[in-house]
Prior knowledge:
Low-confidence stretches of chain A: 287-293, 330-335
Strand order of the largest sheet of chain A: 3-2-1-4-5-6-7-8
Shape of chain A: globular
Strand content of chain A: 15-25%
Order of helices and strands of chain A: EHEHEHEHEHHEEHEHHHHHEHEEHE
Number of helices of chain A: 14
Oligomer: homodimer
Mean pLDDT of chain A: 87
Number of strands of chain A: 12
Largest sheet of chain A: 8 strands, mixed
Structural class of chain A: alpha/beta
Distance between the termini of chain A: 50 Å
Amino acid sequence: MTSTSAERVAVLGTGLIGTSIAMASAxxxxxxxxxDEDPSAIxxxxxxxxxxxxxxxxDAVTDADVVIVCTPVPAIAPLAARALASAPGxxxxxAGSIKEGVVLGVIDLAGPAGTAxxxxxxxxxxxxxxxxxxxxxxxxxxIVWVLTPSEGADPAAVAMVxxxxxxxxxxxxxxxxxxxxxxxxxxxxxxxxASTALMALAATEEADEPEIxxxxxxxxxxxxxxxxxxxxxxxQILLANRNGIAAAIDLYSQRLAxxxxxxxxxxxxxIEEMFASAKRARLRLATKPTVRAGVAVLQVxxxxxxxxxxxxxxxxxxxxVNIEDLQIVHSPEGGRGAVHLTVAAxxxxxxxxxxxxxxxxxxRLA
Amino acid sequence: MTSTSAERVAVLGTGLIGTSIAMASAxxxxxxxxxDEDPSAIxxxxxxxxxxxxxxxxDAVTDADVVIVCTPVPAIAPLAARALASAPGxxxxxAGSIKEGVVLGVIDLAGPAGTAxxxxxxxxxxxxxxxxxxxxxxxxxxIVWVLTPSEGADPAAVAMVxxxxxxxxxxxxxxxxxxxxxxxxxxxxxxxxASTALMALAATEEADEPEIxxxxxxxxxxxxxxxxxxxxxxxQILLANRNGIAAAIDLYSQRLAxxxxxxxxxxxxxIEEMFASAKRARLRLATKPTVRAGVAVLQVxxxxxxxxxxxxxxxxxxxxVNIEDLQIVHSPEGGRGAVHLTVAAxxxxxxxxxxxxxxxxxxRLA
Lengths: 366, 366
């Protein structure tokens, strides 16, 4: 460790997340060097951010305080090991969406330097977009950024990465790599699996029952929205966290089996209690970490015509109420729309008042 | 059958759906009589719609051409049987969300009259709201309205209900009661079960891992939105369709088990193919039956501040593009928002052009 504050940053892999991190770092005054195996990606990145174009990973990490590897998961460990070897004064981190395999891979290749100076990371943003041309420093703003230092990590290295993450706009959260992978299996990977399995099942049924999707209402749409995610990316993620995924699927299947038995055996009060307990938990879950302390969900009626949503959102804007989430419900079923608006709980009364003044007939659902 | 067109309608049970149907019937010139076991419900209904208040079900159905029973499922069969007995010239239908048990219950109580003149129905609208004070004829506009005539049903009775449903604004779709229940098990009940089970599992994990929901991103939120539904109502629905639910859960669990095995055994290409096939099916699923033939999904970037959505929706309104669906994505993860806009495919190029003109940086996802 030659520095305590990260002034010189190297980004290896300048896709959407790498370039966004480069831009967020440059925004706070860091000097940034970048490398990508694809010359057009690094050229595009250098047009978006003030990035020095390096010809090799070794060239990029020369003099860096922090190196971040932003490639697909399989390429992370070899690049991190090269960076650790070439830049003995640098802390190395990454942006991979699973952590245990990556951290073990780095230690395997780099030995004690991997344990001490590689601090696994997972900036929990994401986008359907890809490529440096869609990068933005806003990708980093306010996101939860998990750091997974090994037990033998250099405390100064951890502090440097943590300080840099905060400075460029992220919210660092420390936990072990194993715990990270276990938790994301439940809240990120399992929802994807549950959604894809439901859509795959309905698509199979549709072959025999062409009208099945005519009967699909808003709930089905909510549950299957994730099923349009990138197949190649998800196959890679699931395989990289296979034990975590399998454990989460097993626990989920057990819940489904419990509920199935309650239904078949007619145990109404138990079904109702399971539903009530899930409902309470869901209402505690808010839309953003920053407003998790309290949100309100309002339902309003809007006619299904151009301009109706514009009137609604303008009404909220005029009264300075920020819309945290907006969902059109029931439109699959006909020519009218109910809209669920999520706003900070502190804004709920203001929102209800102005919506009622404009005849949007609001009610508070939660 | 004394008439061929339904001019006189009786509504038994004047909650939200019953009162909405009464209003939609009155809108097209039908005379409407109503009854509810709760005197305040029928009083409220008569304030919303031009409904003659009846003191008993028998009083309500006198002279009716069509009787519709809009009570909770357990009360439907007894009331339908009373209506069939008191009004020998009327066709009787209902608005229950499951059909086979209801239809068999009516035939059990009413005999051949149940087979001939009871035509099960399921208007597939719905609302988180309840009570006649939130009723509106718009609840009926354009909704898919399943009718489940028995094999021995009087064709004139079927024609009368079908004609009336169309006239008041619904889109009648005929199928057997058993098929209805099987299909809604997949596209309505199973999504509810999948959502509640996922939320219940995460809530249990949260007891040991208080930070788990900090890592929950937009996907988890999508998947668990339904988990805040009414526990008592859902317990009733699941029990009324228990075999259909159990069969759907079994098939779903099998998909999950297949995917689990593919993951554990590292069968990447098979995982990718399952995800790709689900993705294709999801992209075929549009937001409304009327535009299902072709929609486009556009992604745009909007800053997370009051007024941003208003600018976006106003831009669409000015160019007369109707927004079929709008979803804010990624807001759980930070201070920015991407928005998915669904528009008719024919409007996609117009929408992309005006959005680009206003610097919303749109891309077409599907």
